[in-house]
TrEMBL record:
Pfam families: Relaxase. Residues 17-145 form the MobA/VirD2-like nuclease domain. It comes from Gloeobacter morelensis MG652769. InterPro entries: Endonuclease_MobA/VirD2 (IPR005094). It comes from the Bacteria. This is Relaxase/mobilization nuclease domain-containing protein.
Length: 155
């Protein structure tokens, strides 16, 4: 497994892209109540009002396995929650959504995460690229996945 993480200002654009009609995608889970892109965006934006001073409240993570891996919905959900915990993000306090894409030969999911928790505290994303690489290695071993060679993101 390999992971990639970025931060951004706008949840709307990311949600629109990940849930775009015509994409081979499905919402696997998370802790947001909304089901449409508009409802999901509004929920994330409402949470972000708790810390308006944060310039990039939107965290986007992709977790990718090698082509040929068989990962079911429950495994992806468990891996997503494990990823959050490995990154020291409380999945009970930070809004997140896990979306599976089937637009590439390799299985992968996208996580949309609010850096702002429901109590207004902020996740500080220092060294996230390194922590994501370490988390992906732990998830690879824990779930018995094939290692992905360095330098191959594929997402």
């Amino acid at each position: 497994m390999i992971g990639n993480v970025t931060t951004g200002k706008n949840f709307g654009g990311l949600i629109g892209y990940l849930l775009k009609k015509g994409h081979q995608c499905s919402i696997l889970g998370g802790n947001v109540l909304g089901r449409t892109p508009k409802e999901i965006r509004q929920e994330f934006e409402q949470c972000n009002r708790l810390a308006r001073h944060i310039g990039k409240p939107c965290m986007h993570v992709s977790l990718s396995a090698r082509p040929g891996e068989r990962i079911d919905r429950q495994q992806w959900l468990a891996m997503g929650r494990d990823y959050l915990r490995l990154m020291s993000i409380d999945p009970d306090k930070h809004l997140y959504l896990i979306v599976e894409h089937r637009d590439r030969p390799h299985p992968h999911v996208h996580l949309i995460i609010s850096r702002i928790s429901t109590d207004g505290s902020v996740y500080h994303n220092h060294w996230d690229a390194y922590k994501t690489k370490a988390a992906a290695a732990i998830l690879t071993e824990k779930y018995g996945l094939w290692p992905v060679p360095d330098g191959r993101s594929g997402t």
